[in-house]
UniProtKB/TrEMBL annotation:
Keyword annotations: Flavoprotein, FMN, Monooxygenase, Oxidoreductase
Alphabetical list of SUPFAM superfamilies matching this protein: Bacterial luciferase-like (SSF51679)
Lineage top rank: taxon: Bacteria
Domain Luciferase-like: 33-368
Residues that coordinate or bind FMN: 57, 103, 153, 157, 228
Protein name per Swiss-Prot or TrEMBL: Dimethyl-sulfide monooxygenase
EC code(s) of this entry: 1.14.13.131
GO molecular function: dimethyl sulfide monooxygenase activity
Length: 434
């Protein structure tokens, strides 16, 4: 049986996906601004043998619903939101195997400084970093940066292509493997082995050299999240891991097949690409325990918060429509109904006792051939602690969850690959991942 990968899905904020639940007494989400929150989380996840912590991020506010950001601010819908990169070194310090996948958009900050931050983290984590590439969809984010001419959706992907190109050159071509020669004790690095990259492109001119010496992975593991035609092509060409949208077996199967076909046309081997889907779980040992959790979540659920999130993401202000109106073939009333359910929104939701949950997970894996899951929270830390206590042993018995970590960097853990990168200039793809 193939290995299944498990990521804890997080964001450096109060309200990530399931809005309103930060108000539950004992929910530690409001401690997101304390380092202790992150180090305790990391220790819990490593004890539970999670593969990685996956951090989402946005750099704008959800300000479409009711024509402004008031609802988002009141309900803490991804605002306040701190920088996701900064707690990682502290989490790395209290763990040895847990890996970190961090979302960073190619649309706003230039690649030179970002490549440096990732190299720094790849050094400090000893090769446990991944970058989830997004191009971002919030108009409000575009307005926060000095983008004089706003880019269209597809232009953002053109820019992302070049962004990644620059990063590859900095990470892979600037410093030769044996440039640093401290063993020889004569000089720190050999200048003939540290190269400028001399990149001149449509969006960026970057001369180099890269400021960091080669980190354990050089290039962090490349994740991608973005499901349009261009997004799927970008993923098929570049990504080693892909975070898919979709919640039904049919949706997920369709997307996996579609991206797989695209990847094959780019000459890549499917064994070098792992597909992940989002998953929410509510569990307990008895029906009473499960029902009381469901009732608790329902009682704190914020329809307003979920509306603000949905409308911001879609760029549609549902407050302007009546329940009977139709948008893109969906009745507004139906959308609102879905947003009002704790099992309704974007990701697959499983509610049940451990064996029932594991049965459903196994069914999803068998039907879709998915490689891994991003586990979404309702409550911090209960969601992950319940999962580790109740579901992990069931999954381990079925071979669907690792019993121990394999050694090495994130890329080695995922693909059993000793990293050796070969950048294929003519194809613009990373041929080591073929
Ligand atoms: C499952 C999933 C998760 C995503 N998470 C984020 C995120 O955390 N931050 C973000 O800015 N965009 C996120 N995105 C969206 C990306 O911004 C994407 O680049 C944007 O939607 C435009 O690409 P697309 O039209 O190809 O989907 C996510 C998309 C998907 C499918």
């Amino acid at each position: 049986m193939k290995k299944i990968y498990w990521n804890a899905f997080e964001m450096n904020c109060v309200g990530h996906i399931n809005h309103g639940l930060w108000k539950i007494p004992g929910n530690k989400r409001i401690n997101y601004k304390n380092l202790n929150y992150w180090t305790e989380l990391a220790k819990t996840l490593e004890k539970g043998k999670f593969d990685s912590l996956f951090l989402a991020d946005v750099v704008g506010v959800y300000d479409v619903y009711k024509g402004g950001f008031d609802t988002s601010v009141k309900e803490a819908v991804q605002i306040p939101a701190n920088d996701p990169l900064i707690p990682i070194s502290a989490m790395a310090h209290v763990t040895t195997n847990l890996c970190f996948a961090v979302t960073f958009s190619t649309s706003y900050e230039p690649p030179y400084s970002f490549a440096r931050r990732m190299s720094t983290l790849d050094h400090l984590t000893e090769g446990r970093m991944a970058w989830n590439i997004v191009t971002s969809h919030l108009d409000s984010a575009d307005k926060n940066f000095e983008i004089k001419h706003l880019l269209t959706h597809d232009e953002k992907y053109d820019l992302a292509d070049e962004y990644l190109d620059v990063c590859y050159k900095l990470w892979e071509e600037s410093w030769e493997d044996d440039a640093v020669s401290i063993e020889k004790n004569m000089y720190y690095a050999d200048p003939t082995k540290v190269h400028k990259i001399n990149h001149k492109g449509k969006y960026f001119d970057v001369i180099g050299p890269h400021l960091c010496e080669p980190s354990p992975q050089r290039t962090p593991v490349i994740y991608q999240a973005g499901m349009s035609e261009r997004g799927r092509d970008f993923a098929a060409k570049n990504a080693e891991c892909i975070f898919l949208g979709g919640k039904t077996i049919d949706d997920i199967t369709y997307i996996i097949n579609d991206i797989s076909e695209r990847a094959l046309t780019f000459g890549r081997s499917l064994k070098n690409i792992k597909m992940f889907m989002g998953l929410c779980i509510v569990t307990g040992l008895t029906d009473e325990e499960i029902n009381s959790k469901v009732d608790l979540y329902k009682s704190f659920w914020s329809l307003e918060g979920n509306m603000a999130h949905y409308c911001g993401g879609q760029g549609i202000d549902l407050s302007k429509y009546s329940q009977d109106d139709n948008i893109n073939g969906f009745a507004v009333g139906e959308i609102v109904n879905t947003l009002n359910r704790i099992d309704g929104k974007w990701f697959k939701v499983i509610i049940g006792k451990p064996k029932e949950v594991a049965d459903q997970i196994q069914h999803i894996i068998e039907q879709t051939n998915i490689d891994g899951f991003n586990l979404v929270q309702y409550h911090s830390p209960d969601t992950f602690e319940d999962f580790i206590k109740y579901i992990v042993p069931e999954l381990q018995n079925r071979g669907l969850y690792q019993k121990d970590y394999s050694p090495g960097t994130y890329r080695e853990k995922l693909f059993n690959l000793k990293h050796k990168y070969r950048y294929n200039k003519s194809q613009g793809v990373n041929s080591s991942r073929f």
